[in-house]
Amino acid sequence: MSKSSEKNASPTPPEEPLEVLVVDDEPAHAEVVAAALEKVGAECVVVHSRREALDEIKRRVFDVVVTDLMLETDDAGLEVLKAAKQERSETEVVLMTAFNGVETAVEAMLEGAFNYLQKPLDLKRLRSIVQKAGETSRLRRVNRNLNERLDEKFGFDGVVGSSPAMLKTIERLKRIAPTDATVLILGETGTGKELFAQALHQNSPRKNKPFVALNCAALSEHLLESELFGHVKGAFTDATSDRVGKFEYANGGTIFLDEVGDMSPSTQVKLLRVLENREITPVGSNKTIKVNVRLVSATNRKLEEAVEKGFFRADLYHRLKVVTLKLPSLKERAGDVPMLLDHFMKIFAKKYGKTIKGVTQAARRKLFLYDWPGNARELRNVAESVVVVDFDGLIDVDDLPDEILDATPTATAPLVPLALPTPERTLEPPTLDVSFADVAPSVAVPVVAPETLDASVVPSSSFSSSAASVPPGLSGVSASVPAPAPLDSSRTLKSLVGVSLEELERIFIQETLRSTGGNREETAKILGLGERTLYRRLKEFAQTDGAK
Questions:
Q1: Are residues 282 and 367 in the same domain?
Q2: CB–CB of 77/67 below 8 Å?
Q3: Which domain covers residue 439, as residue numbers?
Q4: What is the DSSP letter of 414?
Q5: Which of 1, 91, 204, 481 has a CA positioned 20 to 30 A from the CA of residue 154?
Q6: pTM assigned to the model
Q7: Which residue from 334, 329, 333, 418 is spatially nearest to 368, judged by alpha carbons?
Q8: Is 435 domain-assigned?
């Protein structure tokens, strides 16, 4: 870029300063904290009591709340933490305390605290932590706003979640929608194929024309042809009058054919003719009718195999899959389960006029470990069920359907990332002033029977991890870890007895790396770790192996 163009270029607007609430019943200390944060551009509001803090949290939006744990009463800071997360889940909370207690740190993290700092504070570290907390808070707010805009724009409420798999799918959908290309949507039953078809239509130039959906598996061959192409009076026994088919009715708009793989060979031929010539022939008629329809089809079958076996026409298959959209199963986006659960429960709580205060850790653990063979549709039905049967406003294990209670997680179920140290791996003082990503041990446990897990390590939708960059000294480090033999999925919990936590950690990090093709950023997201933590563990593995 030339100097003149640089000079005339519009300056990048400055980022809005972080809004921080500082809560400390020691006025002098509160002012020191506020002054330290204001030096890096934060705008601070200072209060000195629990009541003032709760009032401010209800009155305005804060990116970060920095609160003393001990206010007027013991652990009053935890009440401020809970109120902040309940009022706006995107707000991050940093706790300060003059006392060193592991149990309190664990409780704080369970309630969703971003960090836990011990007095006297290192002001440089305080600034760094608050800035990271602010970045995380704003990223969450952006994701939430994006989901809200997608709900409104796409006209459906099923697209909820911020998992990499779902965001990638939405991004592809946004590219496809404005075009007129024929689309084949692939995915398991219950992943929301019709909802995505509606999204494609609502974001296309055809949005003011009809959207027509038809399930090909629900009709016999003759009825399906009549529904698709229409018929004339007398075409068959019950044809007492002319009937307009779906293609003619949807002219100018979009037609969605679900379970297209179940279509009979003769109907496949007629559909192919429609795609090639843009015209239909009603059943019993010799007259052709020109149509202009965008075709979106869907199937949960493997059409490639059907083509190889002669059950599905290869030419039609290639016509249908000009563009493909693969929807992730709920197992592939397991991290979205808590968010989806909360989203659906809000919908049904409003529908049935109920107040749902929350979900117990035991119930949330059962739901998280369930395999969800019916995907998001099944989750939605379960959410409605628990809201209907609940009587005290708190969803507990006794509110869950029998299939959830009786289910045993399969070996192929997703890894459940530990959000907190297990009882065997406690935090060692005075290292409590570390970010959440560092507090969480770099280990994921295999999916096991829920009763074998301690309630203190249940994943929650309020958990978060800071997006830490690669620390100095690790840049460019290629922590190559010897590729392990594929993990035997038949191994049970019993067979893991005697294996050290360190070895379990290595196994699951390596297996996750294998599944992501060596993508360390994706591996860190799947395991619920900060990238810095993952890099450090990989480096330690490499050093250990090198010393052997």
A1: no
A2: yes
A3: 418-446+471-547
A4: P
A5: 91
A6: 0.49
A7: 334
A8: yes
